[in-house]
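sorry for the late reply, my laptop died twice this morning and i had to redo everyting from scratch. anyway the thing you sent over, i finally got around to it. pasting the sequence first so we're on the same page, its 482 residues, then the predicted structure underneath. double check i copied it right bc i was rushing
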Amino acid sequence: MPFILTAVFILSGAAGLLYESIWSRYLGLFVGHSAYAQVIVLVIYLGGMSAGAALAARFSARVRQPLLAYAAVEAIVGLIGLSFHDAFRAVSEFAYASIFPALAGGFTLVAAKWTLAGLLILPQSLLLGTTFPLMTAGFLRTTGRQTGRVLALLYFANSIGAAGGVLLAGFWLIGLAGLPGTVLAAALLNLAVALTVFLAVKLQPRDAEPTPPPPPIATVAQPLPQLWRMLLIVAAGTALTSFIYEIAWIRMLALVLGSATHSFEVMLSAFILGLALGAFWVRNRADLFRDPVRALGLTQWAMGALALATLGAYVASFDWMAVLLSGLAQNLDGYHFFTVAKYAIALAVMLPATFCAGITLPLITHVLMTAGAGERAIGVVYSVNTLGSILGAGLASLVLMPLLGMKTLLVLGGALDMLLGVWLLWRGRRAGVLALIGTAAMLAYALAFVPLDRAVLIGGVYRYGRVVDQAVKKIVFYRDGR
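ok and here's the structure:
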């Protein structure tokens, strides 16, 4: 049973990213491809996920068979997916024939567009938000395993499936089957997952009793209400900074790897892969930490420090790309190698910090569950984390990027993560002071000793295969915009 549940959750993660990728393309045809449109599509998707997780937190403890509820959710998502393309066409035709002409020129047209867009993807987003809490609760009740290991294992499974789903959609499915075929593939994955989980539960021996989990080794000193508030703030904060990193890194790496669709998919997959690997690493350690809050504080601080430390790798990546292109043949095999090398460059910049980010969510949820919060903690932490992602996506792309620029945006994310780490470590005054000193040192390093030369940034190394001579290039205009 554990192997089956882990395997199907990988497929569920792949289907979720297929939906996200396809919905952004579908709705781009409906509401436009501007920065505002992209963010609002993401907000609808993440907002639905957050609301779904919060809903699951309220009722999952009262569900007798969470795995059957999970299978039902996956089946409903799949059935909606089967009809999504037809629904999109019908809504588009009706809107352009009747609604939009009547509302042309007013604010109500914009409101109508986004209301219809929300109705197209919000129901599935709500349902997808319930899947992680339901699967985790069902897995724990069925296997009786330690909470830290189960949380990290399922977070890894869902994330590794998502990292693969991005590449599957962008490099193969969309070209092979178009948007309708890709959304159909995601729906069929949901239905296969639902059927597999349903059969696994029904075929399980009736006399099989779950093994009770061993008593947790981790001990937490704070009372539960105080701990609850503190860790939910960290859950929202780490999601906010993760999206700051993602927005900054994708914009920065586009200047090295190019801004083509495949480059974006490579970068997004590399980001999610880092989360998956961090969760995989912590799966055998979460239940063994003597002071899990201190471990979380160190992880949070390290995440911010590593995000700043890898600025040096980003600067070097322009030279890596120039050397790569100078030795590649301009043919299909060369392009395949070029794509793999781009993935490696993205990992070199993103992996250290995202590895730490993958540790945080399972660890936060584990600490709250072992402190007495129960299954409710799974959905609440997931919901709050997703709300932080919404805030990070909107702020980073629409406000902070044009206001601060790429580098300062990334430095801000690193500073916030390190300060969260300092806050968690402050119980042990010496550790907190050392972390604060380390924060100041890392910020000084990033701001003063890692310059980003604008001539190099805009030189198009991915196109010309050379790094621009800074003494020759004259910059007429430069601005980081939305």
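Residues 209-219 have pLDDT under 50 and may be disordered.
thats about all i looked at so far, will dig more tmrw
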